[in-house]
Design brief:
The complex is a heterodimer. Chain A is of the alpha+beta class. Chain A has two helices and five strands; from the N terminus they run E-E-H-E-E-H-E. By secondary structure, chain B is of the alpha/beta class. In chain B, a hairpin with a 5-residue loop joins strand 6 and strand 7. In chain B, helix 1 crosses helix 8 and helix 4 crosses helix 5. The chains are: A alpha+beta, B alpha/beta. Strand 5 of chain A pairs antiparallel with strand 1 of chain B.
Amino acid sequence: MTQTVARKGLVVIHAERCKSCEWCVRHCPTENLRIGAGTNTRGHRPAEVIDPENCTGCGQCALVCPDVCIEVYRARRSTSRS
Amino acid sequence: MPETQPPVEIPEGMEVVATRPRALTDVPFTYCPGCTHGTIHRLIAEVIDELGLDDRTVAIAPVGCAVWIYEFYALDAIQVPHGRAPAVGTGIKRASPDTMVFTYQGDGDLAGIGLAEVTHAAARGENLTCFFINNAVYGMTQGQMAPTTLPGQKTTTSPRGRDIARDGHPIRVCELLSTLDGATYVERVMVTDPKAIRHAKRAIRRAFEVQMEGRGFSLVEFLSICPTWWGKKPDEAVEWLRENMMPYYPLGVFKSAGQAGGEQAA
C-alpha cells in the first residue's frame, strides 16, 4: 500500500490489487500518476503518485479504476461541504 | 485468496471522495487488467449503498467471466445455469416481492442462450433489473464469436471476420426489448471515460428506482471492452469500441415508460 499525504488531495493506492492497466494514469487531469518500477505479489507493476503536492483530490482515478484499488480524500473546503 | 485492506486513517480536515463501497467484499476481482467488469461492479455496489438496499438485495450471477460475483458482492447471491438468470429472478421476486433482484449477464448469457428468458421476463413485465454487459465476444471461454459480435469482427471462431451471409447479424438487445410493452426502462450506456461512467451510474440508479417503485422490467446495457480477446491494450480497446461498437449500438434511453406503463399483466 502506498500512502501519500498531499495538501489538497490524498490518493491511496492499494498496490496489491492494482493490475497495471493504466486507466488512472490516462485519466489523471494533472498527469500525476504513473506506473511504478516495483511489482506486487502477482507480478503487476502498480500505479503510483508522482508528486503528492500536485494532487487535487478530484477522484477521477478512483472513478475509472476497474479494480477499486484507489481511495481518494480531499481537503474540506472552509465554506461548506461537510 | 481473501485479502483485507489495511485501514486507512483519514487525515485531519479531509473528506472521503472515493472509497470501496460497503456492498463489495474484500475479494480482489478476477478480471483481466483493464476489464470494465470491475467498474460496473463498483457502480452497482455504490448505488446499492446509496439507496440502502444492501440488506434486501439478491444478486444473480451468470455464466461467464462474472460468474464469481457472489464472491465480490457482500449480498445474497445465487449462481444460475447459463442464461436463466431472469427466470430465477422471476421466482425470487414473486416469492419475495420486497427483495431487490438484479441479474448481471454477459452477451453470450443474455443475448445468446438466455435470449428467450430475458425476452419473456420483459414481456411479462417482471419487476426486476437486468444488467447486460456487451463486449461483443465470449470472454470467459476464450473469445469466440457472440450474438453481438460485429460484422467483420475477428474472433477465435471467426478468424476472417464475422461473415453476415454465414453467421447472421448481430442482435441489438435494447432495441429488441424496447418493443415489448412489459419493459419499463431500457437504456444503453458505456463506461469508457469519467463522464460516461457517471452517466452509467445514474442509469443504474434509475433502473433500481423503477424496481423499487414496482414499475416493472428494467435493463441497462453496458458497452464494455474485452482487452484480452480483442487483442488490444485497454486504451486501444476503448478506441475500438468508440469507432466500431458505438455506431452499431447507439447509446441512449430506448424505453422509459411512465407510472402507468410496464405494470404486471397478471
